[in-house]
Write a structure and sequence with these properties.
There is one protein chain. This protein is an alpha+beta fold and about 220 residues long. It is built from six helices and nine strands; from the N terminus they run ββββαββααβαββαα. It has a six-stranded antiparallel sheet, with helices on one face. A three-stranded mixed sheet has the order 3-5-9. The radius of gyration is 26 Å and the shape is extended.
Length: about 220
């Protein structure tokens, strides 16, 4: 897969498995990217850091807007949210096949992917707190005011991206293992709490029985 941009189709917000085949690229580069709140419209850029930044830099006058529906002229009296930008991992196998890692990188689980060759996904969508909280794999997240152009976006994205270090294979393994250990510990804690409640309940029953026996005597 080469660099691709466009609107996500047929995918739920938060889907991390979206592929280039589910991105609809406009016939012409749009002057305005309108993101519908009702339809959860998403505009995506998939490629490496240099490819994505170059595309944004080359299209500085494109405006990023939000609308309630697909038609931005509908319901103009309703306040609209701002725009969220997420940098996310790319799980498109075609993208990874095109952007090959070096031999040494593929052998070293501690090696951090090179931003110049690692495909990622930059996603633009209208702010929706409920949906946004479901996405937690982002490398960075920024919120911009609606009506900004890509020239203004470029500076923010570049600054945030410069702080990012992609996780190594080992980092991902620790993350998955950590979730497993945390879940196990939570279950163990619940079991221990249940045992304590049961012991306390049986202890109270025993005391009650002894008191009844004493009164009977």
């Amino acid at each position: 897969m080469v660099f691709k941009y466009g609107f996500a189709i047929g995918e739920n917000v938060g889907s991390m498995s979206i592929t280039s085949a589910r991105i609809m690229t406009p016939l012409h580069v749009p002057n305005v990217i309108s993101l519908s709140v009702t339809n959860s419209t998403r505009f995506l850029l998939i490629g490496t850091k240099p490819e994505i930044l170059e595309w944004i830099y080359d299209h500085p006058t494109i405006l990023i807007e939000t609308s309630l529906f697909d038609n931005p002229n509908e319901a103009p009296h309703i306040p609209l949210p701002d725009i969220i930008i997420d940098l996310l991992p790319c799980y498109d196998s075609d993208a990874h096949a095109t952007h090959q890692k070096s031999f040494l990188q593929s052998l070293n689980p501690l090696s951090h992917p090179d931003p110049a060759t690692e495909p990622v996904r930059l996603e633009f969508r209208a702010v929706n707190q409920t949906l946004d909280e479901e996405i937690n794999e982002w490398y960075f997240r920024i919120v911009i005011q609606k009506g900004k152009n890509l020239a203004e976006v470029f500076q923010r994205v570049s600054e945030e991206w410069s702080k990012v270090q992609y996780p190594s294979l080992w980092d991902n393994i620790k993350k998955v293992a950590g979730v497993g250990v945390q879940a196990y510990n939570e279950v163990e804690e619940q079991v221990e709490n249940y045992k304590k409640v049961e012991e306390q309940h049986h202890g109270n029953e025993s005391v009650s029985y002894e008191n009844e026996s004493t009164e009977g005597d």
